[in-house]
């Protein structure tokens, strides 16, 4: 039986909101899919009755959409901090890529579920540009555009397509390294070495043909 909570005091509503999201994320990681997690299970983990969940989220879709949104918000913060480290755009992109992979590995199995492509909640579609995932991706696109304008990145590929390729590379690295962590059957080198190898290959694909800032020629 779910233990009854006392009536929330002023300011506790926001705390409960975060507790609900925490519980939903934990259950997602444990169960492996949104379909396997019920609102009742989330309520039991938090220690409230199911109706209390609906005071904060209109339905299950909104709850799990907000889980994904919060994850993308945190990821965007990590990538923004990495970009602010100065240096060339190529160096910024490497730091952003490293931050992405490290965040994904830190979240572990939650990453696979939360970043697995949950559809936007219907109520969010009217302001798609404000979705955390969209903002994070556009930050990457803006960085690529800055690199093209600075003459560091190749200009023969559409900036958005180039950003997609970079995102795909680091996303794939997270999934492969998580698979190795869960079942160490792949003959992979160490985590750090693998991450740097992925970033090296990506850099060779997006830099402008010619020497990089440290004098290396990435394409030959």
Taking pLDDT < 50 over at least 5 consecutive residues as the criterion, the unreliable ranges are 1-11, 216-220
Average pLDDT level: 83
| Level-2 CATH architecture of the largest domain | Orthogonal Bundle
The end-to-end span amounts to 66 Å
Task: Using the coordinates above, name the CATH class of the largest domain.
Answer: Mainly Alpha
**What would the CATH topology of the largest domain be?**
Tetracycline Repressor, domain 2
The tally of structural domains comes to 2
Q: What percentage of amino acids are in beta strands?
A: under 5%
Shape verdict: globular
Number of helices: 9
Q: What's the CATH superfamily of the largest domain, by name? A: Tetracycline Repressor, domain 2
User: Structural class from helices and strands?
Assistant: mainly alpha
C-alpha Rg (nearest Å): 20 Å
Order of helices and strands: HHHHHHHHH
Describe this entry's structure for a reader.
Helix content is 63%, strand content 0%. It has helices spanning 12-31, 39-46, 50-53, 60-83, 89-107, 109-114, 132-149, 159-182, 191-206. With 220 residues, the protein is an all-alpha fold. α4 (60-83) packs parallel to α7 (132-149) and α5 (89-107) packs parallel to α8. It is globular and about 60 Å long. The chain folds into two domains: 10-57, Arc Repressor Mutant, subunit A, CATH 1.10.10; 69-206, Tetracycline Repressor, domain 2 (Orthogonal Bundle).
